[in-house]
Design goal:
The protein has two domains: about 5-55, SH3 type barrels (Roll), CATH 2.30.30.30; about 65-160, OB fold (Dihydrolipoamide Acetyltransferase, E2P), CATH 2.40.50. By secondary structure, the chain is mainly β. Helix content is about 10%, strand content about 50%. The strands form two sheets. The protein has a five-stranded antiparallel sheet. Strands 1-2-3-4 form a four-stranded antiparallel sheet, with no helix packed on it. It comes from Pestalotiopsis fici (strain W106-1 / CGMCC3.15140). One of its GO terms (cellular component) is cytoplasm. This is Eukaryotic translation initiation factor 5A.
Length: about 160
């Protein structure tokens, strides 16, 4: 898509990352060239701010972004053990053991298909999912954003009654 056709709140690929445009401005046509478009965008998965300056006639890639809501069925954890330099020396195990708990969401779509490959996110969203589902024991819906081979839980909310 041409830079001049991009719009605020739309999506664009900057530095090979799917981004949402949060600000854009166009400079006047210069003496020796085209007008320039300055894009300010946030990576939709990391939240990192990215910028791009391109001629208004330059084509930019636009990612195919899907947003889908699922019902949360459960949260499960894998315990991963690594760094066994010498597995026979039991005295070193406690110093060589690196333990990571990775939480994954078990989700169900409206048509009954299950999805178990989305990580429980860190930070505010992950805490909200945990609080609604585990602490408050509410029926919880989770919104999954997918683009460019990546996916992430970006929102959690109490499921409407009767759903």
């Amino acid at each position: 898509m041409q830079c001049s056709a991009l719009r605020k709140n739309g999506f664009v690929v900057i530095k090979n990352r799917p981004c949402k445009i949060v600000d854009m401005s166009t400079s006047k046509t210069g003496k020796h060239g085209h007008a320039k478009v300055h894009l300010v965008a946030l990576d939709i998965f990391t939240g990192k701010k990215l910028e791009e300056l391109c001629p208004s006639t330059h084509n930019m890639d636009v990612p195919n972004v899907t947003r889908r809501e699922y019902q949360l069925v459960s949260i499960f954890f894998f315990r991963i053990y690594t760094k066994f330099d010498n597995p026979w020396d039991m005295s070193l195990i406690s110093r060589q053991l690196d333990i990571a708990d990775d939480g994954f969401l078990s989700l169900m779509s409206d048509d009954g298909e299950t999805k178990d490959d989305v990580k429980l996110p860190d930070g505010e969203i992950g805490e909200k999912i945990n609080r609604l589902f585990t602490t408050e024991e509410k029926d919880t819906n989770v919104v999954i954003l997918t683009a460019m081979g990546e996916q992430a839980a970006v929102e959690a909310k109490e499921a409407p009654r009767g759903a």
